[in-house]
Amino acid sequence: MACPYAANAPTTIEEVACWQAALLCIVPGFTGPKLDLPAALRIAESLGVPTAPGVTLLGALRQGWHEGQASRRPANG
Question: pTM for this one?
């Protein structure tokens, strides 16, 4: 199985900025780590990422993260 990061590594300046912003905005949550999306968006914007692409990229990152976490949970029943 290929490394998920290698298969989905950021390739543009905006993607790298959003990735870095997301890493800075991981917070504890009830079911595991969560992404503070508003804070990550503000950091991405401060790194030069326009709002609309930032929302799209961070949303995709969060979705992929949740899918990855779900794939590691044991199946019910």
Answer: 0.81
